[in-house]
Specification:
The protein is an alpha/beta fold and 153 residues long. It is built from 4 helices and 7 strands; from the N terminus they run ααββββαβαββ.
Length: 153
Amino acid sequence: MKPFDPHKQSKALRQFKPTRQRAGVFTIATAFCDAALLMLAFFLAVSPFVLQPGIQVDLPISTFSGGARFSSMVLSITRGGWFYFNDERLDSGRLPDALMEEAARNPGIPLIIEADRDVDLGRIVEAWNAAMGAGVQEVSIATRIAGVEETSP
């Protein structure tokens, strides 16, 4: 005969089994991947709005609201008359060679000329002619979009 154990039921109740399990490595890695993808999406969404920080160009205003393609080449002309192309400051003698080299590397890509509003028109035409001589098929001039005036009803 077995001896009587009055605590048999209480021993069974004392064995605590947690209902929640600790977060594993997979859960933590998923959270970090989500955060990294959100940051990547943010930077991709904001990157078209980033301008070239070292080149000060005050663009003229236009009511045309169309835009250029993302893969365009950009030639900036500063107030002092300097040409900036591919993050390099060029003079008028080296500009055609740089444009020709880039046009040969990427045929069919358009060129956008960002010229300050105080730049002499002859300087812009000089850049335009250098681009056409280098074989660039499409050349555009960048402007700022004019603010839309609200009309009262």
